[in-house]
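Batch manifest line 384
LIGAND: LLP
JOB: complex structure
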Amino acid sequence: MFNPEQIEKFKRLKTPFYYYDISLLQKTIDELKKEADKRNYQIHYAVKANANEGILQIINDNGFGADCVSGNEVSKSIEVGFDSNKIVFAGVGKSDEEIKTGLQHEIFCFNVESIQEIEVINSIAGSMNKTAPIALRINPNINPKTHHYITTGLEENKFGINFDDFDQILGKISSYKNLVLTGLHFHIGSQVTDLEVYKSLCIRINELQKWFVDHNIEIKHLNAGGGLGVNYENPDENLIPDFKSFFRVFEQFLELQPDQILHFEIGRAVVAQCGSLISKVLFIKEGLNTNFAILDAGMTELLRPALYQAYHKIENLTSIGKEKRYDVVGPICESSDTFAKSYILPETKRGDLISLRSTGAYGEVMASHYNLRSAIQSYFSDQL
Ligand code: LLP
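JOB STATUS: finished
ARTIFACT:
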């Protein structure tokens, strides 16, 4: 994916670093916007996927809203210029301070996840003389067929409210003076590649909507969350995710009420493919059964492989030649600091540049300082 000119530029930079292809990001945003606008779907970019300020700016410039999961994400989004009226705030454990931040900025909606949270938001909103718009996050109990660590919509997960509690909740909400129920929220998981799963979600939402209609409760917006997956195995075959097919499932199977607006919170599909982690080979170590390519990037810069056994395509940017198998590992004192086992690369040597592809989502943002590692730089293609 990288041309010789780019690789020459990489050679002059201190590794490891994140590299973002801004033209690809813009094309991805254009496609998402085109398909969403056609259907009047409202997009909130899931800030958790990548909160790099430059990336946030580009996304805001294109008019999307923000999906936040902490008070700091709300503040950061406002700082970057996102319209507070397009900010949704989710999360199972919002602190009082974070709730106040959302109320101060008069955000579009709090996605609430428990009965107690509803009580607390009502009381804080009361003390601030505000009315909090809320969407109930419903646990639809749908299996997204993805890694169990990133499954969120099953009854066993900590997220959302179970439908059985609804009678009780609605009784309460009507007595709360500082809340207004505006929406229903769903999110079933991340890196979802089987679109049938979204069909099941639509059918489930239709059933639930019926209950609200029968109870004469107007729901102004539905939020179907995010989760659309990307092609990690062959990124160059699908640099831009198939937003069209994704939205068509909702268009076909979701029965919106008159004037009801459908919202989405998309993270990974917007930013994953535009990012690469560029690293250098420190050492080649011949093991008993395997060879290790030891990189200067590790789980502190890219946690996904250690945490979810996630696959990222690895490329040697500076050597070609006979192929060999390597365990590609980082320098951190943990055996789980392994990017890939028995991975085929051209014969690799100390000083080679290595790219870990599709790392624009949940890469830089999940970095840590473990082993007292320093934060790394990020570069944008249009500024290099
Ligand atoms: N909305 C809610 C309520 C979420 O929990 C998430 C992701 C999203 C939207 C955005 O989902 P996306 O479109 O990015 O799939 N660190 C993991 C992924 C965790 C996802 C958490 N929630 C990973 O590296 O795969």
